[in-house]
């Protein structure tokens, strides 16, 4: 019956519980009988630590005695029981909390005693005598009894008194001090004793070895990174925010997400193979056209969004190679705006044709036709006998001079150049190839030749919204000298170079070039500038010319004052292409 079975199960459970309680009480009774109250057993771990770390007197006497055979499992040092009132060790061989704390305190005290002994050399005979008076007996094997409950063990463990702890600590200090003295005396002896004493000094040697490599690395690192630290320390805070092109452009070539045309363009940007605002913009648009033609839309994704993300990655790559020009940034903005306006229900091939047509139209209208419009506006200003002064190399100024030569206007050009790029030499070659008479001078002689000039034609990297002209470094100086000599200054700039940024000096935003470009040869005083602390040559790419020094800005829209830039920026979408 189910009722009878439940009663039998309850009876058997009560019997099992009663038998367990009886066994526990029997074990506790045996344990109390087997463990004497006064004698405290020390485990093998404690004995080995005491014999090896605290005293050497027992080890020296043990050396004279014959060693036990290897087959026996007995330890090298005798296992003893100390008659002083120490904490009771459990039958399983584990240490109690009091013993662990006592050992830690003993180690700390021994270290302090060793330091004191080294400095003063005091004798420690009394503590050694106390250690010798300790009675040592053989260890009796502990019976294999199951551990008692935790509550009973805590009651049986007596706490050490202060006097007992002091006695143990003094004995340990004396033993360690004496052991260190013997180790120092035994160093000039034979090799065998040195090996035996090396066990005592091994912990300290390990500590020294673990610290010394860190010191070596810390001392060696400044010598290796001296150049890098010097460069970072000597960089003036006034120019900390300026962007410099990364030298390791080749590190980004193997990026699988970068199109080969963009990778090649990035290297050309970094190596200054492609320079000039218009040239950089045209090269960017040609590479962008290759990216669009070779682009494949990922599965389950929209063409416009995926293409926008891919082009953004390519633009970031170019920016790492060299900061983008204003013309490149404006072209990318126009392209991105065109991508967002693509229809969604048109095949991918037609969308690519739309974007390719947009890129070709942008190059033709914003750069090609704009240059023709600016040239036609200036041809009325160039007459026979004019002396045109220009600075650096500008593709737009070159086109204007070539057009004037085709019109058979008798004029000559003064090309002003400056280090370190010396772009005026390329301008001189191009003009001379078309039969235009030229004069080449450096910028330090601009005051001497400015009296001969009738007009100053300058190119521009960008035209800012507040009317300031951002151009190659040295342009502002040429404009200032021209203003002093009452020579009109005409800045030729297409509208795709107009920027919405406001800037009144060349420090707020600029681009840093390689400082080594300023070092001409091995005889230059800046040859070893990297090894000199607090010295870094400053090589700025652009400067800012205030609108007060500019007579007019020639654009494809009209010849306008510099203050008309915001108007052009507002109506530019209507000018369009």
From TrEMBL:
| GO BP terms, alphabetized | animal organ development; central nervous system development
Question: Compositional bias of type Polar residues: which residue ranges?
Answer: 1-10
Keywords (alphabetical) are: Cytoplasm, Initiation factor, Protein biosynthesis
The record's principal subcellular location, in a coarse class, is: cytoplasm
Compositional bias, Basic and acidic residues, is annotated for 152-168
Say if the entry is tagged with keyword DNA repair: no
InterPro entries reported in the protein's UniProt record: IF-2B-related, IF_2B-like_C, NagB/RpiA_transferase-like
Q: What name does the UniProt record give this protein?
A: Translation initiation factor eIF2B subunit delta
What species was this sequence derived from? Drosophila guanche
